[in-house]
Amino acid sequence: MTLGKVLVTGGAGYIGSHTCLALLSQGFDVVVLDSLVNSSKESLLRVEELSGRRVCFLQGDIRDTPLLKKIFRAHQILAVMHFAGLKAVGESSQKPLLYYDVNVGGTVSLCQAMQESGVFTLIFSSSATVYGDPLEAPISEDHPTGNTTNPYGRSKYMVEKVLQDLGAADPQWNIALLRYFNPVGAHESGRIGEDPKGVPNNLLPYICQVAVGRREYLQVFGNDYPTEDGTGVRDYIHVTDLAEGHVAALRAINPKLGRGCGLHAWNLGTGRGYSVLQMVSAFEDASGRRIPYKILPRRQGDIAESYADPAKAHNDLGWFARRDLDTMMRDAWRWQSQNPDGYVSSTPISI
């Protein structure tokens, strides 16, 4: 007897795969819909290996409304966790229409299929980018949203507004907007982790690829920010903590599991920021490898400092980030050293 079946869109991706593992380990069944545009089915095979349980996988696009309706007819879905979407800040500035089509249009298609099927519990993978360039730090959920600095962030903000309107129009909906900060690390086994296709857009996977020789050096964009060492400061959260936060939100908002709550936003972060150079130093300590870097001009859309006030999630969901920076770095290095080419290779490097 399971607690119910959860549809996880984008479930083969970095955060999605770790959340699938968390769901399976806590007694849920999982159905994954993923286009595999930025992910690998291998991640789900390893989730099955780690959990000893089966994942129902379907390859497809969240904009495919007939496919969505077919999935809901075939499976008795308890809730949806929605990770599917495009997430590269730089690319979003070059291809804004694509980001609005996939991220906003795809979510509208998903919600239409859910509503038609009588499924009204949704956990949405939002982002701290909805806060834009913050007025203060730490950032609480009461901080103004919408002052976004790139199309990716605007697409997340637009989806939040769509879901807020949906929740206001129909009280059957229970929706969690999970605004998370910067996921890093990997499962402690080293079997699943972050495997970006092409040049990494995020800091730690880039550092990891330098460490295993796939990149010559790290590009540090800007060292003239008003921070301690001039480099950007972010709130880095272990991906396993993040996955556990999603399950905590599901338990809280689904009426069959918790109280049901309408629509709420929660920050998922640690409450502490680290600079780029602090991250480099911490990784060097964990891996024993030197990370060469070069300072480049700031990127358009980047901000100086962003870190969370996670108190609301702690109070409402009983959740908080348990894993520290050293653990994040050790787990990230374990994953990358055991999988130097990501999911296409499982031949470890000598360390």
Description:
The chain has helices spanning 14-25, 42-51, 65-74, 89-94, 96-117, 151-169, 203-211, 239-253, 276-287, 311-317, 325-338, and strands spanning 5-9, 29-34, 56-59, 77-82, 121-127, 174-180, 182-184, 218-221, 233-234, 236-238, 263-268, 274-275, 293-296, 305-306. It is built from 11 helices and 14 strands. The termini are far apart. The strands form 4 sheets. It has a 7-stranded parallel β-sheet, sandwiched between helices. Strands 12-9-14 form a 3-stranded mixed β-sheet. Residues 347-351 have low confidence and may be disordered. With 351 residues, it is an alpha/beta fold. It folds into 2 domains: 5-184 and 236-268, NAD(P)-binding Rossmann-like Domain (Rossmann fold, 3-Layer(aba) Sandwich), CATH 3.40.50.720; 203-234 and 271-344, UDP-galactose 4-epimerase, domain 1. The longest helix is centred in the first third of the chain and has 22 residues, at 96-117. Helix content is 39%, strand content 17%. The radius of gyration is 19 Å and the shape is globular. Helix 7 packs parallel to helix 9 (276-287).
Instruction: Give the overall shape, derived from the CA principal axes.
Output: globular
The total number of structural domains is 2
What would the average pLDDT be, to the nearest integer?
A: 95
**Low-pLDDT windows of residues:** 347-351
What is the N-to-C succession of helices and strands? EHEHEHEHHEHEEHEEEHEEHEEHH
Number of helices: 11
Determine the CATH superfamily of the largest domain: NAD(P)-binding Rossmann-like Domain
Order of strands across the biggest sheet? 3-2-1-4-5-6-11
**Total strands:** 14
Spatial extent as radius of gyration: 19 Å
Taking the sheet with the most strands, its summary is: 7 strands, parallel
- The name of the CATH architecture of the largest domain is 3-Layer(aba) Sandwich
Instruction: Report, as a whole number of angstroms, the end-to-end distance.
Output: 44 Å
- The proportion of strand residues reads 15-25%
Structural class assignment: alpha/beta
Q: Percent range for helical residues? A: 25-40%
